Amino acid sequence: MSFLKEISQLVKNNFLSGIDVLSRHAAQISAEIQQGERRNYNEVLDLSSGDLHRGGIKPITFVRQVLAACLYPALLEDDSLPLDVKQRAESLLRECDGGSVGSYTDSSGIAKIKHCVSQYITRRDGGVPSSPDNIFIKSGSQTIMLKLLIRSKDSCQTGVLIPVPTYASFTLALEEQGAAIIPYHLCEEQGWTLQVEELRKALHTGRKTCNPVALYICNPGNPTGHIQSRKSIEEVIRFAAEERLFILADEVYQSCVYADDTEFYSYKKVLSEMGSTISSTVELASFNSVSKGFMGECGLRGGYVELVNLDPAVKEYARRLFSTRSCPPVVGQMALDLMANPPRPGDPSFPTFSEVSVFAELPGISCQPLKAGFFVFPCLHFPPKAIKWAKKRQMEPDMLYCLHLLEETGLHVRPGCEYGQRKDSHHIRFNIMEDALQRLKTFHTRFMKEFS
Amino acid sequence: MSFLKEISQLVKNNFLSGIDVLSRHAAQISAEIQQGERRNYNEVLDLSSGDLHRGGIKPITFVRQVLAACLYPALLEDDSLPLDVKQRAESLLRECDGGSVGSYTDSSGIAKIKHCVSQYITRRDGGVPSSPDNIFIKSGSQTIMLKLLIRSKDSCQTGVLIPVPTYASFTLALEEQGAAIIPYHLCEEQGWTLQVEELRKALHTGRKTCNPVALYICNPGNPTGHIQSRKSIEEVIRFAAEERLFILADEVYQSCVYADDTEFYSYKKVLSEMGSTISSTVELASFNSVSKGFMGECGLRGGYVELVNLDPAVKEYARRLFSTRSCPPVVGQMALDLMANPPRPGDPSFPTFSEVSVFAELPGISCQPLKAGFFVFPCLHFPPKAIKWAKKRQMEPDMLYCLHLLEETGLHVRPGCEYGQRKDSHHIRFNIMEDALQRLKTFHTRFMKEFS
């Protein structure tokens, strides 16, 4: 196809990474369809991002009513809003200086919301105590934690262990902070599980070139949709204790657990129950946000980190790092309060606070069962002809597959090469929407036939 | 007083900077008043921050109505909202994926809002063109620009010229990024003007110990309330051109100009009219935000930077730095749109969009005339007895003055030592609210009498 020549040129261009090409091409197709160009499909369907609202999921009414009333308190006089919405908005506005979401807050967040988050954590972990003093509400808290851990001036680079596959933005943040990336592979054949043996191997290799100080975990996983068992978490914590690694636990998908036999255990809960030599020493930062989970409020930028077992002097340094930045967006903070303390059965707004789940398994491609998270990361088994064809165009086969899938069906998914994968294996990542599956199936069947 | 012993102890404590002590003491007094303790005043009045809403100024109705409707689009059916509010909300929601402010946007902001900002800049500068491609909407854009300019790995530290006095958060950001701070003094006697001779002297000194690459300007000034003349800006630009310095122009107070004979000129406008050898070469980043100016929406975190004359490769690197961060908060982006394109005469909402100005001059302390910005930075002339008294307590005299002012009158202002001042000069910084002046006057008179 003629568009591919143009695209290959773009990919080769220094200024364009693969990420731009796919997204730009998707935007271009959308524009062409809007201008009346006819294709086999009526719209580009974006399966590429962890953005529920972009995917057409509606925001939760209770959340939006409370936030609208906080922004425009004249709505508190409006009879159409439920009583619990008004009460919550009034209670949140009392915590704002001047009663306005337009005022600065404490740089680590509004005290009452930190308190609310710590209560949520305690409930989640079945009573394990959480102190508001260890909660930092901040969009971008992962970057701040990296700043804390990474010594850019040391002659030996600071190393951080990260899973393969993983999502690109964390890797970019590591690179930007000057860290050495130490990859450890998740085991696809066993449902993308995290094997301590893999960690040990990776650490051993990493120690030859840098100074590994931290272990980054994404549980439930992105892009793999796996979830760690309690036993697996215990093993990882024991490993971190032995090797004196700081655990960065990205737990933003903690409320997205689908499989019947599966339960989310937080690193903090498991750690707290491991005996005092470990439970009081292993340092942990756990991240959560309103972007993922049932709310899907990515645009509001509300997130927090909870710090566990930090040396008081280090915690004080962390506090300073967090406080050199301005306060987090107040509307996002309030969304966090609503996530941590949603309406309960009996409250007027309880019925509007329903959860979201639009996932299924994809036939025709080998795919580990989806247990948690937003995404699937199925493996594509390309025939040699397809590999050759991609090589000729100087592109990754899965990237080329994604470009064709987009062109032919309007489905925008991401190639596995962006997340990391074992040599000679190929994947795609997408969030599953029911009406996308048929398009993908038809394309995939045709594609495999063409290159067989 | 007994509280002072305790406070002195706190200030000496490593873990507490002066900033915390004043704020904590203010919070403590507020709490005591709420619990019924009687003082000479009924409340602590916070004059310490550039936060209009905290100071009791009401948010602009049009702004809040549009944002509430964007968050909760059911309000678009509400008859109580004006037509232009609904139209604006609908038009903004059309730019959001899935029609939701909960979706991610482009990492440098929504394209249409960048376009709106560039039109605003063109109008402001009397027709000087501005391209959306040079606009990056981001909360924290100053830090990202510092990342771009500062080479942490060079053996010679990167230097940035900054004014004295200046506000602490920019200095903290510089320190955090590992830059060398090169202070240049503003000339208080001449209304806090910026003298190129001072810049030259500072640069000369700086070159002995670091590699100066950028010049940071705050115009209109914080904390000084000065504003640069067109001629002064030309001189500074010529200096930057000669010395090959990147200009970081913090122009967030551009809409706060009070004096009759005074007009705001942007660095970009003046630069564009200086002849092509200068106008096409001097690199400039200009910052603006919804936090300051007439909106005072600090909590929404909406700001932008416009880049001028950057080398294409450097601009591409900047684009990458901006894109490694998530998108800016969407509600803040929308507020930026409303700032850049407010209701016009004839629109239903025009009357609700009124400006704010609650400033006056303070008698009894020597103070340069306030021309622009939020703050005054009057000079306190302490008698030797007061200096001695402070020295004995190992505190800066202006810090001690602030603590006493807070304790006795409930006025929370900041000491000049936090912003930088010439040796043996002392200042306080505050935003002037009418009802604060009498309290300050009474305290100041008593204080000076006691130490004379």
Automatic annotation (TrEMBL), chains A, B:
Pathway: Amino-acid degradation; L-alanine degradation via transaminase pathway; pyruvate from L-alanine: step 1/1. One of its GO terms (molecular function) is pyridoxal phosphate binding. InterPro entries: ALAT1/2-like, Aminotransferase_I/II_large, PyrdxlP-dep_Trfase, PyrdxlP-dep_Trfase_major, PyrdxlP-dep_Trfase_small. It catalyses: L-alanine + 2-oxoglutarate = pyruvate + L-glutamate. Transmembrane segments: none annotated. Its cofactor is pyridoxal 5'-phosphate. Its EC number is 2.6.1.2. Pfam families: Aminotran_1_2. The keyword Metal-binding does not apply. GO terms for biological process: L-alanine catabolic process. It is an enzyme of class 2 (transferase). Keywords: Aminotransferase, Pyridoxal phosphate, Transferase. This is alanine transaminase. It comes from Cyprinus carpio.
